[in-house]
């Protein structure tokens, strides 16, 4: 049986022609690329999505906490703040409309020191400035969690969890219903700018052959690979990566939670938190440390640090109650912690690069895609 992408057999494409021309190419089959495809697919006759793995959402999009963020931490007027707050509303509406499992459970942010109490108040003030006005100090519901250690607690009622895999499959289905095709197992090797559009050299791992796609519109939503691809588009090292690794551990103890439990945020993340899943299981994570290589093994050196952080707000937890679950890599930039949308256009072509698309990427995805759709329509 031939390898099928949408309604097209990739072998047929490769062997029938050395190059084929399309209207738009999206690079990356994670949540960003899929959401963008869902939003702009209806505007193009021939639109393709290239994914280097053999299925959607195999990297950052599936290696996270599956949390719907409220948008309370990010700087006012930043893309993260804008996309997270707008995206949260759009995401809840989409999940409800498409009957995708979710739980608007809310979350507590715990402060354990006087310094953290001050930070907690600053989080509340920042959230209010950004338009999130539903945070409150709540000492009632959290008191039932007698095993937690805290001096003060801030409650975010609009935070939640959802089934990100079903969500991404839904986005994929909509993209394909518009006529979009996904090329799995295909890695971008080279980009050549032309007078009109781009020639994209692709290596297909399934057939072990190379082929060229010609496109006028090029959207780089490649997550971990987005900096490499952006630098190929611009022809020089315009951006540099900062990869932040996070590890998750499952909890096997007797305690139960109905809310998300977060500490005060750290430098690179919103904190090593306790998350419930839709089956009421509990996992902790992510940790946060910089790495140079992309690999997903747990580090024995990190487990002791991980355990000590959790004990800070869950003092009676035992190390044996933590078992390795999974890890993830956040594709950040070395000079900003915000999302970056970098557009290069002329009369005959357009490239859009989405960079630094880490947390709150899942929550922000529909707001991002709405923004990209607007930019595309301005240039068609």
Can you lay out the helices and strands and say which pair or pack?
Layout: E1 4-5, E2 8-9, H1 10-16, E3 19-27, H2 31-40, E4 47-51, E5 67-68, H3 79-97, E6 102-103, E7 107-111, H4 114-130, E8 136-137, E9 152-156, E10 160-162, H5 164-177, E11 181-184, E12 186-193, E13 198-204, E14 209-220, H6 226-234, E15 241-251, E16 260-263, E17 273-276, E18 282-285, E19 289-291, H7 300-313, E20 322-333, E21 340-345, E22 350-355, H8 361-377
Parallel strand pairs: 3-4, 3-14, 4-11, 7-16, 14-22
Antiparallel strand pairs: 1-2, 5-10, 6-10, 7-9, 8-9, 12-13, 13-14, 15-18, 15-19, 15-20, 17-18, 21-22
Helix pairs in contact: 2-5, 2-8, 3-8
Question: What would your notes on this structure say?
Answer:
The protein has 2 domains: 4-61 and 166-240 and 336-377, FAD/NAD(P)-binding domain; 107-157 and 241-333, D-Amino Acid Oxidase, Chain A, domain 2 (2-Layer Sandwich). Helix 3 (79-97) packs across helix 8 (361-377). It is elongated. A hairpin with a 2-residue loop joins strand 1 and strand 2 (8-9). It has helices spanning 10-16, 31-40, 79-97, 114-130, 164-177, 226-234, 300-313, 361-377, and strands at 4-5, 8-9, 19-27, 47-51, 67-68, 102-103, 107-111, 136-137, 152-156, 160-162, 181-184, 186-193, 198-204, 209-220, 241-251, 260-263, 273-276, 282-285, 289-291, 322-333, 340-345, 350-355. The strands form 5 sheets. Strands 3, 4, 11, 12, 13, 14, 21 and 22 form an 8-stranded mixed beta sheet that branches. Strands 15, 17, 18, 19 and 20 form a 5-stranded antiparallel beta sheet that branches. It has 380 residues and is an alpha+beta fold. The protein is built from 8 helices and 22 strands.
């Amino acid at each position: 049986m031939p390898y099928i992408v949408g309604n097209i057999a990739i072998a047929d494409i490769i062997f029938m022609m050395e190059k084929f021309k399309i209207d738009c190419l999206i690079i990356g089959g994670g949540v960003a690329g899929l959401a963008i495809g869902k939003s702009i697919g209806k505007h193009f006759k021939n639109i393709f999505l290239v994914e280097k793995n053999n299925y959607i959402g195999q990297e950052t999009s599936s290696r996270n906490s599956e949390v719907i963020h409220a948008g309370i931490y990010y700087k006012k007027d930043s893309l993260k703040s804008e996309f997270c707050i707008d995206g949260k509303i759009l995401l809840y509406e989409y999940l409800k409309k498409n009957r995708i499992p979710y739980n608007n459970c809310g979350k507590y942010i715990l402060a354990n020191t006087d310094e953290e109490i001050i930070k907690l108040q600053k989080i509340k003030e920042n959230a209010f400035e950004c338009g999130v006005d539903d945070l409150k100090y709540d000492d009632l519901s959290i008191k039932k969690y007698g095993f937690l250690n805290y001096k003060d607690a801030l409650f975010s009622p609009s935070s939640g969890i959802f089934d990100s895999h079903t969500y991404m499959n839904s986005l994929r289905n909509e993209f394909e219903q518009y006529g979009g095709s996904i090329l799995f197992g295909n890695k971008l090797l080279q980009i050549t700018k032309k007078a009109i559009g781009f020639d994209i050299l692709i290596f297909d791992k399934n057939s072990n052959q190379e082929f060229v796609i010609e496109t006028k519109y090029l959207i780089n939503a490649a997550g971990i690979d987005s900096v490499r691809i952006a630098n190929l588009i611009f022809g020089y090292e315009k951006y540099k990566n900062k990869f932040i690794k996070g590890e998750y551990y499952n909890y096997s103890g007797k305690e139960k939670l109905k809310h998300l439990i977060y500490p005060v945020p750290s430098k690179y993340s919103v904190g090593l938190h306790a998350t419930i899943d839709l089956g009421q299981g509990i996992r902790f994570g992510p940790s946060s440390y910089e790495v140079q290589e992309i690999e997903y093994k747990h580090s024995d050196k990190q487990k002791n640090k991980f355990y000590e952080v959790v004990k800070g707000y869950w003092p009676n937890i035992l190390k044996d109650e933590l078992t390795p679950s999974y890890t993830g890599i956040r594709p950040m930039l070395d000079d900003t912690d915000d999302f970056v949308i970098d557009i290069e256009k002329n009369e005959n072509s357009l490239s859009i690069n989405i960079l630094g698309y880490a947390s709150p990427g899942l929550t922000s995805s529909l707001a991002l895609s709405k923004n990209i759709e607007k930019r595309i329509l301005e240039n068609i």
